[in-house]
Amino acid sequence: MAITLNISLAEEQKGWLNSRREAGGFSSQSDVVRDLIRSEQEREKQALLIQFRQMEQDGSNEAEPAEILKMVKQVKKVRRAS
Fold first, then answer.
1. Which residue has the higher pLDDT, 51 or 7?
2. Separation of alpha carbons 39 and 51, rounded Å
3. Residue 39 to residue 47: CA distance in whole angstroms
4. 80 falls in which pLDDT band (50, 70, 90)?
5. pLDDT by residue (tens digit) across 5-48?
6. Alpha-carbon distance 41 to 70, whole Å?
7. How many Å apart are CA 80 and CA 62, to the nearest integer?
8. What is the mean pLDDT of residues 68-82?
9. N or C: which end of the chain has fewer CB within 10 A?
10. pLDDT of residue 64
């Protein structure tokens, strides 16, 4: 289900969005924004997976800090959503 979201853009941002729509063959500005969000989500997912794999390779026996546990939860959440 799509949700409508209204945002404010500077003229140059709107121009860039329109240029991206035309150059990328997108049918609407919304398609461009959704593509940008998907790309960022994938980038974040890959960064988390790299960090997670590094943690696995380190094999530390020490208690993991809360921040690392939070990262592991994020990776698991992303994996479930994929």
1. 7
2. 18
3. 12
4. confident
5. 999 999 999 999 999 999 999 999 999 999 999 999 999 888 88
6. 17
7. 27
8. 76
9. N
10. 60
Q: In 3D, which of 54, 39, 48 has the Cα closest to residue 73? A: 48
DSSP code for 82: -
Report the alpha-carbon distance of residue 11 to residue 16 in Å, rounded: 9
Confirm if 29 and 17 have CB atoms less than 8 A apart: yes
DSSP state of 25: T
Query: Helix 29-58 crosses helix 11-24 at what angle (to 10 degrees)?
Result: 90
* Structural tokens at position 8: 């404010």
Residue 24: HSE in the Cβ half-sphere, 13 Å Cα cutoff = 17
Domain boundaries, the chain: 11-81
Which tokens in the block code for residue 23? 């150059």
Can you give the pTM of this predicted structure?
Answer: 0.65
